[in-house]
Write the structure tokens for this entry.
Amino acid sequence: MSVAVLVVASKQLLPLVVQFQDGVYFEVRPLLPHIYANNFDLFPFHSSSIGCHGAVPSDGNLDVELTAFDVVFSPFFVQHGLHGVDRLLVCVPRLRSVLLAHASRLGLVDVLRRYCPEHCTYFQRATLMEQAATFGHLAAVEFLIANGHPLCLLDVPAAQGHLDIVQRLHHTEEVFCTPKAMDMAAKCGHLSVVTFLHIHRGEGCTVAALDEAAKAGHDQIVRFLLANRNEGCSQTLIDDVATAGHFAVLRILHDTGMACTAAAMDRAAGNGHLEIVRFLHDHRQEGCTTSAMDMAAENGFLEVVQFLHTSRREGCTTYAMDRAAKNGFLEVVQFLHTNRSEGCTTDAIDWAARNNRCDVVLYLCANRFEGFTQRAVADAHTMRHVTMGAVLATHHQSLNRPTTQRISWV
């Protein structure tokens, strides 16, 4: 047997020989269809797509692309490590762009150190720093700073609450910041970041800081901003806080003497925030409108309806029973029928029939005189509510306009 045949037949020698041949490495081969199918080799952040120095990536699909790349690449990286990545880049050199963005996103400093040249201009934007700062990887941020990569806005880590990265970027001379940093930190509940920016930065914030913190229920941040900042807030803030149901924040704003409108109680009632409705009734003069009971009934908040009936004079409209019936809130319908005089319209049974609320339709047919229209019959038939059709047929005397159409409930 010739020497050549022995080499080819050798399980030890042949793999060593083929390592020096052109082509695709064996371990890389299963990865290639996924790479080309997802266009990972055409990842948009090459030097050919230079953007401005900023915090917002030029491609809105960045998160989707990097998540998809992670699904494909991470199992490969776990199995083959940096040696496998070396071979992958030999086969697909243009993959370096998405690889570095992914490494920054996951804080893979070893990958950055191996494949990101010192003071490189490969990325003309702050993409790598944005990814590392957004996901809180201080070690990756330190590496990128040391190797001359563009900085992202301080807004980026501030919005995510990464105080250590905010502090690190703050101590570089080139970092930029806007009022949005404190606005977003306040909105997302990052008190330590808000405090740091207030003490160490001069950009300040806008009314959005207090507005968004209050609407999100961050009472400690609301207290801090009221005590230390003078940007103020929007005129309808208490209305918005009442709508969201943040009672602690509402009391803070109330204690400052801030004004509100009747919309505060209306919306709080509509969202079922009984504690806030009680507070506004006891401590404010703005009152409410009929929309308060209407919306509370529509959304099934019986206790709120009962409180408004007992404690307020605004009352409601036929909207209350109509919408309560539509949404199947039988107890609310019963309470309104028994205790209120506004009544309902034919919409009550029509809508309840469409939504197959048999118990509500039976109650209304037995206790109300408004009846229903041909629409109830047609909708029940169209939606194949057979039982509902039988109920309506039983109470045909409540039909406002006689039907000439014969309907078969099959």
